[in-house]
Amino acid sequence: MKVKVLLLIAAALFAAAGAAHAQKRGGELKFGVSAEPPNYDCHANSSFAFVHPVRPHYSTLLEFDPANYPKVRGDLAQSWTVSKDGLTYTFKLKQNVKFHDGSAFSSADVKASYDRIRNPPQGVVSLRKAAYADIESIDTPDANTVVFKLKAPNAAMLSLLASPWDCIYSAAKLKADPKFPEKNILGTGPFTFVEHAAGSHWVGKRFDGFYEKGKPYLDGYRAIFIRNTAARVNALQAGEVLAEFRGHSPADRDKLVQALGNKIEVHEMPWVCSLVVTFNTEKKPFDDAKVRRALSLAIDRWGGAQALSKIALVRHVGGVLRPGYELAASNAELEKYPGFSKDVKKSRAEAQKLLKEAGVANLKFKLTNRNVPMPYTPVGVFLIDQWRQIGLTVEHEQLDTKLYQAALRAGNYEAGLDFNCDFMDEPNLQLLKYISADKSTINYGRYQDRTLDELFEKQIRATSTAERKKLLRAFEDRALEQAYTIPTVWWHRIIVTWKQLKGWHMSPSHYLNQDLTEVWLDQ
Amino acid sequence: MVYHPMLRYIVNRLLLMIPTLAGVAVLVFILLRMMPGDIVELKLLAEGGGVDAATIAMERARLGLDKSLWGQFWDWMGGLLRGDLGISMWTGRPVIDEIASRLELSLQVALMATVLATLIAIPLGTISAIFKDTWIDQTIRLFAIAGLAVPSFWLGMIIILTLLLTFNWIPPLTYVPIYEDPWHNLSQLIWPALAVGYRYSAVATRMTRSTILEVMQEDYIRTARAKGIRERIVVARHAMRNAMLPVITVIGLEFAFLIGGLVVTEQVFNLNGLGKLFVETVTRGDFTMVQALVMLIAGFFIFVNFVVDLLYAAFDPRVRYR
Predict the structure, then answer these.
(1) A76: which of A251, A464, B111, B160 lies 20 to 30 Å off by Cα?
(2) Residues B148-198: pLDDT tens digits?
(3) Which residue of A has its CA nearest to B37?
(4) CA distance B116 to chain A (A)
(5) Measured between alpha carbons, how far is residue A172 from residues A92, A260, A349 in Å?
(6) R_g over Cα of chain B
């Protein structure tokens, strides 16, 4: 009898605990964003400044499972199958989905949206045309089915279709005006558009007709544009905003922890962002692989990452792929590459030998960098110091972003500190920085290397993870040996949120998990 | 024909604004085109996005950047004459809408700072002059020098930090017009107005003090005293009125500067004002927006100068314009 009573009490306690963690409906989430979107079109944007305020209005065909990155799950897709030859992807769509104006969603909307991305009409900007070059056709046998047919197998296709930028638009609106999404918001996402006060804030409200019953939990959200870093940190400290979803520096994190203690939660993980040095191979002596490799050998990446992690949002040493990613090189594999050995003395001696052989032992050059304090300035200073230690003189040229981009694109630089950020770990994306300039619009090294191009192409078509890994190691080996573009350090993402913000999941990308469907406020 | 001298003066000054503004328009057009960098590349490649040359060319054509400089200039001047300030190259929204949404806030901060500064400066400057070389004078002068030495944005940061650390509170982050929610509005804007107004009042206090001291040496002041007029009346009715002319100039010019000049203060307080907009648009190379902002601010300066000159005539009957 006593045991029964005890069991009943225990059960009641468990139930109460469970109820305490059940999602609560209501409240408006306020969060800070450090920049503002220039327009409203997902397909034409590439910045977090767009994703954070705008993404909650839209759905995508697939999405990354917020709690289980990098697992992909359906957003508008209910289920899917992939043919054995990897050329046909058939998606069954969720039913009873509506746009915010009440019109019904169907497969035609998916087709229209993807056709717009891969073959944009005249006057429409689509930044991801090249990502879907493998799609041969998109068919809609019925209102709830969409079929993607590929020209060749693509190992990344499902991940690409989970891109947060692939917002699904209304086919009817696109037919009437292909540029409709530039100035209008009409999606099937969890929140409807309320207001955009230019320079000030963006407001969304719960969409009561959302296809996931009971969601979203929030009544709405307000993204407040706060450009100044100190102002953002102050706003977080005062509780005026409950989060800022891009990332904080270690110093800001420490300040908030000291001020707020257990009122906040700190989320940290490696970031799908790295800083790379690109050499202008059209300028001597950077056309010489020995010189480029020497400059890579001189960098103590392991020691530097540790030291820089105290003052900047970088921490990790990795090759062409994010350390920790399934397909990335392990530390043991990395240490075999030039510039990644832990025996820095030996590496630097080799560097000096190579420079002497190339006839540029006392090389002087300019490192072109962005004038953005975090993390560009500290990493730039670090690199210059590393090269100083092998007798080189490097001038640090820090330019405004507009001028910096112009310099890199026009080839008006010698060595540039470039960044490589993506929405997911995917070699098809990260390796674009390393393949030939005539095949990649984001490679500013102005070189051609067909070996790298072939390896890149082969890994896209790989049919197994093991095969792909092998090809990626071969790619990395070649890329780091030739050193046209060399990875330096990978970023570390630090997000501070107030404890009452629940349901948001950290990911290695600041572009993911921002639809706020599952976010709720415990207050 | 305009016969009345004052009216003629006003018309002449208004007509003179036209070539001045035209000169500003040409200068800002040329200077902007000399700046390196490309707004299209910045917009499309913001975070490393890949975009082909054809897309960049298409966007440049859409923004009229593929036209010759003369073509762009005539488009700009033609629009100005029609009162059309154009479309922002960054957002695609009408420039007038972008400016209007920020002008209200900037004007209010400028007005509040001006009122605060005037209410502080004129009494303090006068008292300082009357009690010259006493501890009262020294204290007020110290207050004024501190105001000149302390940058207003730094004072703003101290205000924010004091509020945060003492009350765990910061001013509201978004603007609501005073007629919609006076409490929200004033609780946001009183702090930047204080930070800016302090420096502003320091300039005006010192100017008031020195002009009153100068005027107090005049013969008509000695005559007024000799006639037995009380000192309070001598100062208020005779000295102050004549001493106000340079003070009006300073207050006027400072007010004009506050429209669009509070770049850093706006960042500190997260104010969505014209100063912040100015910096953002220059950084982006948004030609249409920068041109419009420069014209607006130049026009404002010219207009404020004009009003100050008219006030001269109102304060000093000896001043007559021909």
Answers:
(1) A464
(2) 999 998 999 999 999 999 999 999 999 999 999 999 999 999 999 999 999
(3) A403
(4) 25
(5) 21, 50, 65
(6) 24
